[in-house]
Amino acid sequence: MRNMSQKVKKKHYYRQKDVVAIEEDATHEFKGHRNLAVEELPPWTKERKTMKASRKAVSRSLNAFLNTGKGGTVYLGVIDNGTVLGLKLTLSQKDHVVASLQDLFSRYHPPVPSHRYKVKFVPVLGQSSTEEEVLRLISKTDSDYSDTSQRHRAHEFRTHHYCWCDKDYVAQLNMGVLSPDYVVEITIKPWDPDDPSNTDGVGMVVNLHPMHEDEEGNVYMRRQASTVKYSLNDIAQLTRQQVKEECEAEIRRLKTEIASLSCQSDSEDQNTNHQP
What we know:
Layout: H1 2-10, E1 14-15, E2 28-31, H2 59-68, E3 72-76, E4 87-88, H3 91-106, E5 117-125, H4 131-139, H5 164-174, E6 181-188, E7 219-223, E8 226-230, H6 232-274
Parallel strand pairs: 1-5, 2-3
Antiparallel strand pairs: 3-6, 4-6, 5-6, 7-8
Helix pairs in contact: 1-4
């Protein structure tokens, strides 16, 4: 039993209706839905008379995490107060999420390369699940829930209408086949100026992270737990400040290096003069 407990602890999973230990802040955002791009938002989200009209595309948060340079994670299947609900997904729907994200980032300007982000599907388990059930459920293969022969079938993006994979899910549900629940963690990695993938091969004094426009041509930034739209003037001022700070830091580094080399040279000269 002890070995089983250790195995369970090593596994990453959520429990239904639990409240996560983190809060929404500069690097964490909760979303109860999986509408990545603005075109995927259902029509009723644009009706200002409804409370649900506040639903926003996940793209805004992803764009903001990219543009701060510090990265961040969006948790799909976790609602605003941190409660885990999860999203029921078949293997084909999981494929859809990944491919839809790739399509979304291909429309950013500049496009977002694959090494800048990662996607993880984390199982959501029932409150009363035993350790044995936990191990069985989180190790269960997706092929138990979906026909893998259709994995190469093209998905439909940039629309609020059901894709074929969603229709297949409904058909399975009508036959009593339940798909597992997941929290989808989409993580934007922090900008690393020393990563060769983030340079163009030309030596630069300043290697700032790029500012990305989203699929609508907007630029967002993250301020604490809020996503804020920036104007061209805001972006220009921010870039100037970042360049200034990076240049000042490089100047300080060079001064320290020159001083160190100067001390080393003086020491060598003294040793030479004291030699008989």
